[in-house]
Amino acid sequence: MLVRLCISNFAIISHLEIGFYPGLNILSGETGAGKSIVINAVNLLLGARASSELIRKGASEARVEGLFRVPPSSSIKHILEQMDVPFEGEIVIKRMVSKKGRNRITINGSIATLNMLAQLGPRLISISGQHANQALLSPENHLYLLDDFGGLTTQRQILAQGVRQFARLNNEIRALKEEISRAQERQELARFQAEEIDRAAIRPGEDRDLEEERRRIKFAEQLFKSATDGYTLLYDDDEAVISRISRCLRDLERAAEIDSKLSDAVDSLKVAKAEIEEAAYGLRDYIDNTQHDPARLEQIEDRIYLLNQLKRKYGPSLEDVLA
Predict the structure, then answer these.
(1) Residue 177 three-state SS
(2) What is the value of pTM for the model shown?
(3) How many CB atoms lie within 10 A of CB 294?
(4) β-strands 104-107, 90-98: how paired?
(5) Are 298 and 277 in contact, with CB atoms under 8 Å apart?
(6) C-alpha to C-alpha distance for 150 and 144, rounded to whole angstroms
(7) Which of 30, 47, 62, 123 could potentially form a cystine with 10 if both were Cys, beta carbons 3.0 to 4.6 Å apart?
(8) By percentage, how much of the chain surpasses pLDDT 90?
């Protein structure tokens, strides 16, 4: 029941506090005394639309507060639980209407909405007027009326609690199933990735070795010509460097027999001849092993493409892929 009503700066009322008691309470007065204004204020607590025109002239805000006491068996307790509003046997509803449009509603200190008041209000107060019978036409009230008439309110509350618990457990089960499904997907993805990497049979540093081999095969003709020209110039020609050094060395050896001061030059030429011969032999081996192999180049290109795909997926380097 409504225990106390406080009205401030509402219509023509500056401030009014009314206490109500069990049994019959009567508000009487002549026309224009403000009886309807009190009813309008109560309607605000029940979810009626507010307008800045209701604010008393000269005030910036109108305020209506109502204190209700509710029996423990009332269905209101469960409605408040669904709204996540604290409840300990009393309900305090406050409506603040501001000229600036910042209207506020609170229920037991929690911020509320008009929709919440609309659900709660009809179960707190029944205002009877010439259209009071319209409440009987609202389908959402029919079950409550039937349950109250049949004395089934307690059973309904127990059932509602069971349904809420079932819904909560069902949501938890669904969440766990989804988590298990995601875990299985992650496991399957990890298995696929591991198999993909194993199939590739990657060797650390393989990409660098393949890049070098690709460059060699790609420029094999140019490298072959350069190596052949160098070998010919150093060794494989009558006027090759090694031939000229050999002739020069023979002449200087004869001359060194006459003048020993040329011995150092002879020794230096012998060292130079040996190093040039070694370089020429190296070029010859390189020429023998250099070949242009289009099939091998295609294999290398395919392998490099595969390795680059894996690096894009699993890491910037092959070491990261293998980690």
Answers:
(1) helix
(2) 0.41
(3) 9
(4) antiparallel
(5) no
(6) 10
(7) 62
(8) 20
